[in-house]
Every structure is written in C-alpha cells, then in structure tokens.
C-alpha cells in the first residue's frame, strides 16, 4: 500500500489510562480501542489540544474532558464548591483556599491564637476565651476598665492619667487629702465634717 493509501486508511489506535490506587480521586480505566479517521470533522472544534478522531468525537488531552474537551480536570477534585480552571488549578469560593480549596481561610488571619473555621460557609475566627473581635484582636478584661481605661491585654487595663488600679477605679490626687478626706477623682477630695477646702485642710468654724 502506498503512502497516500496509508494516510487515507483508517488507523487503529489504542489508549491506555492508568488505573488509580484505591481511594484516589485519579481517573480509572483500562486499555480502550478506538478508530481514528483522518478525515473526521468536529463541530464545534475540539478544545485544549483535543484531537478529532471521528465525526463530532474528540479525544481529549490529559487533564480535560467533555464532548469538546471543554472541561478541565483537577485531581484531587476541587473541594467546598471550588471550580477547576485548568488541570491542577482550582478557583475557590470565599472562605476557602489551598490548591484544592481544602483549607478554610480568614482574611488577614486570626490573631492571638484564634483558629479559622467555616461557620455556615463563612470563614470566621474562633477566639480563645480571653480575646474577641473579627480577628481575635480585642482583649477581654472581665473586671471592666472604668473611667476611660482601655483593655490592652487579657485582664489588664491601661488607665488614663489620674486613675490607677486593675479596673482604673482608684483616683489619684497629686496632693494627699487631709483630715480623713478621700480622693474621689483626679485631684479632687471629698472631705469629712467639719473640714473643707481643696485638700480638706480647712476646719469650719462652729457658731
């Protein structure tokens, strides 16, 4: 048979797909015979390097499938609703990341020992007991921080000038209150009778 005859003849080919290991997401298969027709036409055309082997029948290159090889394959398959963009590349929905969308991801991460988990499909930081906030960025002071104090670490308040104590509850008077007077706010004394004055230094005269 001449060269032209060989080119126009129907050529028998065989495909071999590797059998995957048990439990794998990889494709399974055995040797399959098919007929390749060099005059075959496929409409629409085969995509992603696929070959038209018979009329409207495509043989897809590795990593693609579908009637026209239009779909990419990802192995392992994209998880949590991810979409396979090209072989081995997934586009992940919000809250998920990783090569196969198998990891829950929180934007900007979780601070202070928080863990990122998916709650009803939404990524959320689960904070340890002493922290709160969307990223576990806010410390918790069970005692509260009074008088304008700020909780800067678990159980620790940063107090404004003029206040001290674990909850910023103790006023500071730069000059001590006299005669049993009590400092009730920065530099302000509450005096006992019969004393008065800024520092309770004056004794009221009796009539």
Automatic annotation (TrEMBL):
Signal sequence segment: 1-21
Instruction: Identify the species of origin.
Output: Champsocephalus gunnari
- UniProt protein name: EGF-like domain-containing protein
Which cysteine-cysteine pairs are annotated as disulfide bonds in the entry?
A: 42-52, 60-69, 106-116, 127-136, 173-183, 191-200
Tell me if Signal is a UniProt keyword of this record.
Answer: yes
Gene Ontology CC entries for this record? cell surface; extracellular region
Q: Which residues form the EGF-like domain?
A: 38-70, 102-137, 169-201
Q: Which UniProt keywords apply?
A: Disulfide bond, EGF-like domain, Signal
Where exactly are the transmembrane stretches of this chain? none
